[in-house]
Design brief:
Chain lengths: 404, 295
């Protein structure tokens, strides 16, 4: 009697196990800069965005089980590589997302290719990720240096800024941004008068700004990000650069940077982003929920956070479509590329063969203090660049995955 | 207008002046460190965090009481100096008889805690703080445009550095302090309250760091990691100058600011590392530092 009850119970359990074979198990790692100069543009905000994406998706699809861990790469490629290796090998992570800092992103991209796992870049910018260093395991989500150069760079050249001097962060991102912007400037009839490369995380730009002033270039291009950009702009105001007739091109500026500068210093800056928290009601609602998911109350989400949400959503959709079981990185990414993207934040878009995600880009200008009606009201929209014009054409990137 | 190594002389003089201005920050910060190490034998690794606290105090004073830069220059160092005194009374006083490493570890741990708390509450992008009205703008010197605020930085920092050096080396109070460091028992026998002098000296060193922080707030990004970026360079400055020497810290601070400024002109990618290269060379040739006394 007991034996048959036991066997019946076992059968029932096994039957339940059979139904659960439809369950999709996924483990995601959010790798970001949690403690240094990029912690506000990515960092804990990316973790909050990831939590939101997972919560939203699993609410509608309860048979998808998602585990999420996070880590701090501290802007060091060796630490980023070590964490990626450990996550892929030991912790059974399927997909790593975010990674602001192009140096770390390029390194992690190689690790993902070696281990045949998946890497969705939201934070890093270097267009080389979908160019010469592209691979079948990496998807480049939110933005890249070509888009920034084409947006901000082209806009400034068209309005008269035809001589440029670059202040460049001396690592992969800065070099890529400087090269892409120089190409845009020269293609539109401008000239690059000079450049100076500064170490990442520099405090004092007075010496470099002096060189920029001496060059008499009409535009000083800031090919840096985060704390470096904030310091450059703050000190440029001190040295009367704008009053002296030169303009500043903040090639990569986020809403958090504008908050740190304050509108009196940042007003008039022209920048390109692919997502702004105050652009429409959907974004505003999402921002409220992002705060509730654990982001600091006084901060504003950046396009990188939106990219983490959007990237995870598309990845989970893909995994659901592929069903339960193990799937290697290349096949998942191939499937991601075959499905068009559609989420409340970026709208409709697609992933190209080189891993580049296409969506519209927006040219913004920072408002004057008198134009800002409430905290966080930073930008006015100058132009919308349609998706097929915003990013580098597929055949110009030298990506080995693209034939011809 | 002539050229030196391909750089026009005008540009070079401008860079030298900028180097002097940066040097005044190094000098202020290394002065505080040198005072604390010279008098107390504590390697104060939380100096960078206390510099950051000074800048944040200036921001918070502006937010909550409306007092501007000039008031903050006095109030912020006092407030941060008081926290320094609390740290000394509760933690550091037990470590004087032990190896230097204990003081280093304790202050390093404190620095991490302070930075982490600041980053938790304020984020890492930074807070806005503008140059005070009376110091905005600048004048064209011919070879460069000098912002008024930077000129003020050199003047203020030179005044404080020379003042501190004078007090320690040339006044009776300074003499008591130096004597108390060398032979505390004998000095106590003369009726001088040595522990209180030591506490106040630590507080003074911390206040110096906070003062540098308030001076930095209008021109550098007020962020939780502003101190850790600077403190490594300042340590190199103190080591080159000689760990216990006040004059060494001041002179080396200004000197290395100029060297770094020149590197930014000729080889900007190396501007982060040139000070450490010099430190390595000085340690090989003169281990006690340029102005240091052999222990």
């Amino acid at each position: 009697m007991k034996k048959s009850i036991g066997l019946a119970a076992l059968a029932a359990v096994l039957a339940c196990g059979g139904a659960n074979a439809q369950q999709v198990n996924v483990k995601i790692g959010v790798l970001s800069d949690m403690s240094s100069l990029y912690a506000d543009i990515g960092g804990p905000g990316s973790v909050a965005a990831a939590k939101l994406a997972i919560a939203d998706f699993t609410k509608d699809h309860p048979n998808v089980k998602v585990e999420m861990i996070s880590g701090d790469h501290q802007n060091k490629p060796d630490i980023g590589t070590q964490i990626a290796n450990q996550w892929f090998d030991t912790d059974k992570v399927d997909m790593i997302i975010d990674v602001p800092n192009s140096g770390v992103a390029l390194a992690v991209s190689q690790v993902a290719a070696q281990k045949n796992k998946i890497f969705i870049v939201s934070g890093a910018a270097a267009s080389t990720l979908t160019g010469e260093k592209c691979n079948a395991n990496t998807v480049h989500w939110t933005y890249d240096t070509w888009m920034l150069a084409n947006g901000t760079g082209k806009a400034m050249v068209k309005t008269g800024g035809d001589t440029w001097f670059f202040l460049t962060a001396d690592y992969a991102f800065g070099h890529a941004l400087e090269a892409d912007t120089a190409a845009v400037v020269e293609k539109n009839g401008g000239k690059v008068l000079g450049k100076v490369r500064h170490p990442l995380n520099t405090n004092d730009f007075s010496s470099f700004l002096l060189q920029a002033q001496a060059s008499k270039a009409k535009v000083i291009g800031l090919a840096n990000a985060g704390g470096d950009t904030i310091n450059s702009i703050k000190q440029a105001a001190e040295f009367g650069i704008v009053k002296g007739g030169q303009s500043l091109a903040g090639l990569l500026v986020f809403a958090s940077d504008v908050a740190a500068l304050g509108l009196p210093t940042a007003q008039g800056l022209v920048l390109t982003e692919t997502w702004y928290w105050d652009a429409n009601d959907a974004n505003r609602d999402w921002t409220k929920r992002w705060h509730a998911a654990g982001a600091a109350a006084a901060k504003y989400p950046t396009m990188i956070h939106a990219g983490v949400y959007s990237g995870i959503t598309h990845y989970l959709k893909t995994r659901l479509a592929m069903g339960a079981g193990e799937h290697d990185g290349k096949s998942v990414v191939a499937k991601m590329k075959s499905m068009p993207t559609d989420d409340p934040l970026f709208g409709k878009g697609e992933i190209r063969a080189d891993g580049r995600v296409i969506h519209p880009a927006y040219l913004f200008e920072v408002k004057k203090p008198s134009e800002s009606k409430y905290p966080g009201d930073f930008y006015k929209l100058r132009a919308t660049i349609p998706a097929n014009e915003a990013f580098r054409p597929l055949n110009e990137g030298k990506c080995p995955l693209v034939s011809g | 207008m002539f050229e030196i190594f391909g750089i026009p002389s005008q540009a070079l003089f401008g860079q030298l002046l900028i180097g002097l201005i940066n040097g005044s920050f190094y000098a202020l910060l290394s002065l505080g460190l040198a005072v604390i190490f010279g008098m107390l034998n504590i390697i104060n690794f939380s100096h960078g965090a206390q510099y950051m606290m000074g800048a944040f105090a200036a921001y918070l004073i502006l937010q909550y009481s409306g007092l501007g830069y000039w008031a903050a220059l006095i109030v912020a160092p006092i407030l941060v100096g008081i926290t320094g005194i609390i740290v000394e009374r509760f933690f550091l006083q037990w470590l004087y008889k032990l190896d230097h490493l204990y003081g280093l570890l304790l202050t390093f741990g404190l620095a991490l805690i302070i930075e982490g708390v600041a980053r938790n509450y304020f984020g890492s992008a930074g807070l806005p703080y503008t140059v005070p009205e009376s110091l905005q703008g600048g004048r064209n010197l011919g070879f460069m445009f000098l912002p008024n605020y930077r000129a003020w930085v050199i003047v203020a920092s030179l005044t404080i550095c020379i003042g501190t050096w004078f007090v320690i080396e040339r006044t009776r109070l300074g003499a008591y302090l130096r004597a108390a460091t060398e032979n505390p028992t004998l000095v106590r026998a003369f009726g001088i309250n040595v522990p209180r002098m030591i506490t106040l000296t630590y507080g003074f060193g911390v206040a110096l760091a906070a003062f540098a922080g308030v001076m930095a707030a209008p021109i550098y990004n007020v962020s939780p990691q502003m101190g850790s970026e600077l403190i490594i360079v300042v340590f190199a400055v103190v080591v080159i100058g000689g760990m216990g020497s006040i004059l060494g810290a001041i002179v080396t601070g200004f000197g290395l600011g100029v060297v770094e400024g020149l590197t930014k002109v000729f080889f900007p990618e190396a501007s982060n590392t040139v000070i450490f290269v010099i430190m390595a060379i000085v340690l090989l040739v003169r281990p006690a530092g340029l102005f240091g006394r052999r222990a």
